[in-house]
Amino acid sequence: MLSKTDLDKLFNPRNIAFIGASENPFKWGFIIVLNILKGQFRGKLYPVNPNMTSLLGIPCYPSVKAVPDSVDLAVITTPAKTVPALIDQCGEKGVANVVVISSDFSETGPEGARLEKDVVNRARRHNMHIVGPNTMGVYSAGPRLNALMPPVAPLDGGLSMFSQSGNVGVQMLYWGNSKGLGFEKFVSSGNEADLTCEDYLAYFGDDEATKVVLAYMEGIKPGSNLLDVARGVCRKKPVLVFKGGRTDTGGRAAASHSGAMAVSSRLLRAAFRQAGIIEIEDSQGLMDAAKAFSSYPVPRGNRVGILTRGGGWGVITADICEERELVVPSLPDELIRRLNEILPPFWSHGNPVDMAANILLEPFMECMEILAEWDGVDSVIALGGSIQGVFDFDAKVEGTKELKETVVLAREVAREYTTQHDVVLDHTRDLVDRTGKPVIAVTLGDYDGFKSDLRDHGVVSYSTPERAVRALKRMVDYRRFLDSPVEL
Amino acid sequence: MNILEEALKRGEKTLSEHDSKLFLAEHGIPVTKEQVAVDEDEAAGIAGEMGYPVVLKGSGSELAHKTEMNLIALDLRTEQEVRDAFRRLTGHSETPVKEVLVQQMVKGDRELVVGLTRDPQFGPCVMFGLGGIFTEVLEDVSFRVAPLSRWDAHDMMEDIRAKKILNAFRGKPAVDREKLADILIAIGKIGLDYDAVKEIDINPLKVLDGMPIAVDALVVLDDGK
Questions:
Q1: Would you say the pTM of this structure is higher than 0.80?
Q2: Which is nearest to A460 in space by CA: A187, A469, B72?
Q3: What's the rounded Cα separation, in Å, for the pair A303 and A313?
Q4: Is A267 on the interface with B (CB under 8 A)?
C-alpha cells in the first residue's frame, strides 16, 4: 500500500534529475526543462545527458548516478527502449519517484505493453513509483514545480486535478488561467502502469492545500479501489469528475486511447454517484462547477431566490431551476412589503424578483441583500447586475448641438456608473460571507470581467443562467450527499 | 437454505418461478400467494382456498419464457375455468408440463422491475426501473453497486426518468418507498451473500395498494464452473 510520504516526494521534491535534458528546442527534453526553469522551481535541477557538460548554464551530469545529491524526483524523456535501464539506475540511486514522459508503451500495442511491464517490475524492485508512462507531466504550486509538456503557467488556487488524458487536463489549466481558476496540484496520469488515479485521489483527499479535486477519467482498472477511496474523500471535499467514454462509440475510443476497461459506463456512473463523486458532462461544465465549488460555500438546500432586471431572463432561470429540481419558493408578504419600498409598483411581486427594467445599482444591491438574507432560500442567482458595456453610448452621434452634448453627458454618467460595478461585486461577496449562501452573478451581455470578478472580488459569475443553474445544481447534489447518513 | 443447493445438485441453470419466489420470500421480498398442483383436482382445491381470480402457469425450471410459450392462463374466475386451463397447460404438445402453479391474481396498478446483475469490476449490482413490456423498450432503469445503503436505494428510485410513477396517481396511493427500499437492499445483499446466484430478474414487481409484490421472478444460477 502506498503511503502519503511516497507521493510527498513527487509533489514536493527537493530536487529533480532530468534524464534526457536537451539543447534542441524541438525536444521535450528542452521544452520541459524550460518550463521547470520558467516556473522558478524552488528546489535544485540536475540535467542528465552524457553528451553535455552544461545545459543553459546549469551543470549537466552523465548519468543520474553521477548527481552529487540524493534525488527525490526523476523525469525521463528518452525513447521507450532506453527506459528500463534508466529505471534501474534511478533505483540504484535511491530516487523516490520517476515521471516517465516517454511514450510508445502499452498505448501502442503488445510490444509496448511488455516494455511497460518490465519498467514497472524494475521500479517495484527498487520500491520506486512511476507516473505514466506516456504522461504530460506534473505540476505542484508549493515547490513551484512545473514539469509539464506545454508551456502553461497555472494560477495559484485550491484545485487539484488528475487526468487520464494529458491534453484534456492541460486544457483545463489553460482555461483556468483565462477564467481566474487556480491550481494547487496537477498530474497527467498517463498509462497508469504503476501509480493510478486512486493513488492521486487519496493523496489529494489528504492534502490540506487541495480544496476541490477535479478529474478527467475514461475508466478504472480491474480490482481498482477507487470507489472506496472516493467514499472517504468525498465526505471531506468535493470531487468533480468529467467522464469520457460514456457512449458505446466514446467507450471504444477510450479503450484504444487510455486502455480503459470496458466497465459498463452506466455502472461506473452509478458507482460514482454512490461514492459521492459529482459527475460533470462537459468540459466547460467542469470549469463552471470548479469555480463555484472552489469559491463559494455549498448551499444548505435546493431553494433559489432569483433577482433579474428583465422579466424574460427571470422566466428562463425559473424554468431551468425547476427542470433541475431546484425550488423557486414564493415570497412571503413581509418580504413583498419590503421590496415594495424599493421597487416601482409594477415589479413582479414574486420570485423571480423582476425589477422591471430598473437600471439603478442601489435597488439592485438592496434586493439582492433582502433575498440573500431571507431564510426561505439557500442561494441567490442575480441576473444583470453588471451593466458594464450596456450604456456605452457612441459619442460620434450626428445631430443638433444639444443632442451631442446630452450624449457626452450620458456617456460620462455611464462611465461613472461602470466604475461602481466594483461596489456591486464587493457587496455580492460580502453577502456570501455574511449569509453563507452562494450569490451567483449572471452577466448576460458582452462581458469580459469573469476573471476579475473571481480573483479581485471573489464573485462567481457566468455568462448565462443555464451555466449558473447547472453549477448550482452540482452544489445542491453535493449537499444532498453530505447530508446523507454514513452507513458502515 | 437448500433451494439453491438442491437445484445446483440437479444441474439446473435457473430456479423455477416457484422456487425463485420461495427463495426471495425467505429473504424478505414480498411475493404472490401460490402453490404447485400436480393434478386438476388439486389445482381446483388450491384455487378455491386462495380465492378467485387466480392465474395458472406451467411450472418447471426449464420454463423461463412462459408468455412466449403460451403457458399462462390469466384471470380465472371459476373452478371450471381452472380445470379447463389445467388441461390446456398440461396438454401442451411441444413442452411437457407436469406441474402447474396456481397463483393469486395480482391486478396491480404499476409494473416495476428489480434485478441483480454481476459485473466483473463491481460485483453484484442492483437494477431498478420501469417494468413489464416497457423495460426493454424504454430502458428506463438505474443501477447501484451492492451493498446498497438506504440512501442509495431511495436515490436510485429518483434516478429513473419515470420516477413520478412512484407517486400517488389516479386515486391510487403512492408506492411505499420504504418497502421498495427494503427490496432493493435485500436483492443487493443476496448478491453479496450467495455466489451461486448469478442473476435475479423480478419482472413485473407490481404495486397493489401501494405495496410492491413480486409477480414473476427468475433466479439464474451459477454452478461456479
A1: yes
A2: A469
A3: 18
A4: yes
Measure A107 CA to nearest chain B CA, in Å.
Answer: 21
Does the beta-carbon distance from B145 to A273 stay under 8 Å?
Answer: no
CATH architecture label of A1-143 = 3-Layer(aba) Sandwich (3.40)
Number of H helices, E strands in chain B: 7, 10
Looking at residue A388, its pLDDT comes to 56
Q: Whats the size of chain A, residue-wise? A: 488
Q: What is the mean pLDDT of residues B198-220?
A: 94
* B52/chain A closest Cα distance in angstroms: 42
* A247 and B CB contact within 8 Å: no
Q: Which domains does chain B have, with CATH numbers?
A: 3-30+108-221 (3.30.470.20), 34-104 (3.30.1490.20)
Highest CATH level, class, for A154-295? alpha beta
* Residues facing residue A139 across a β-bridge: A146, A186
Q: What percent of chain A has pLDDT over 70?
A: 92
Chain A nearest-CA distance from B155, in A, is 9
Domain A299-483 fold is: Rossmann fold (3.40.50)
- Residues of chain B with C-beta less than 8 angstroms from the C-beta of A271: 122, 144-145
pLDDT digits (tens, 9 = 90+) for A15-34: 999 999 999 999 999 999 99
- How far from B170 is each of B109, B130, B173, CA to CA, in Å? 10, 18, 8
- Quick one: average pLDDT of A252-260? 61
B150 contact A CB<8A: yes
The beta-carbon neighbor of A270 closest among B144, B149, B151 is B144
